Amino acid sequence: MGITSVIAIYALVWVMTAFVSLPFGIKTHDEAGIPKVPGQADSAPANFRPGKLMVRATLIAAVLTSLYVMNFHYGWIGVDALNVFGEPPATDANYSRSR
């Protein structure tokens, strides 16, 4: 796996991690006890901190990407381990061959 592939995978994992972690720790103005600005949406966050979100996403994405790359390199979990449904059922072509 090349370095450009690792960077692309890291970028994808970072964006997904950032979007998943967006709602955690956010409070509305009603929950925080802060008065609202006239015309403000009721669901607008009162304590949004993009720097904290970016640090959190960076750390989690680095761990997940390193686990993915190490699994790719060492082959801990393969496609066979992910086959939860077992072998596919026999079709007519397989049935006629077995006779």
Q: Which terms summarize this structure?
A:
99 residues, mainly alpha, 4 helices
Number of domains: 1
The succession of helices and strands, N to C, reads HHHH
End-to-end Cα distance, whole Å, is: 45 Å
Total helix count? 4
| Helical content (DSSP H or I, runs of 4+) | 55-70%
Radius of gyration: 23 Å
Tell me the fraction of residues in β-strands, as a range. Answer: under 5%
Count of DSSP strands: 0
The mean pLDDT is: 88
Oligomer: single chain
Regions with pLDDT < 50 over 5+ consecutive residues?
Answer: none
Major sheet characteristics: none
Tell the overall outline: elongated
Structural class: mainly alpha
Q: What does this protein look like?
A:
The structure is a single chain. This protein has 99 residues and is mainly alpha-helical. The protein has one domain (3-98). The chain is built from 4 helices and no strands. The longest helix has 25 residues, at 50-74. The two termini are 45 Å apart.
Secondary structure: elements and pairs:
Elements: H1 3-21, H2 29-32, H3 50-74, H4 92-98
Summary?
The chain has 99 residues and is mostly helical. 56% of the residues lie in helices and 0% in strands. The protein has helices at residues 3-21, 29-32, 50-74, 92-98.
